[in-house]
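Entry:
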Amino acid sequence: MRVLLDECLPRKLKAHLHGHQVITVPEAGWAGKQNGELLLAATGLIDAFVTIDSNLAYQQHLANLPFAVIVLRAGSNRVQDLVPLVPEIVTALQSAQPGQVIRIGELT
């Protein structure tokens, strides 16, 4: 699966998502793009977008996207707070459907 990690997530998270083609927003050359512009740029290039931005689902209409959005909920965006979510992320990636929003984790 082709996965795009939002720029608000640590790059080190990429190393934990084995078995997927993972690229970060900065690696794609999209750093600084607003959410709507970023989602449009990613259209046709990815299967899933992973973010920690819980407001994204309220700011953008995601149901018509040609890829899934996975929203991580953790105490912070530090890699040590996100790594425990990796098994759930991998499971979600296996069944994610276009336009689906999947929330993983709990706020502490």
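The mean pLDDT is 94.
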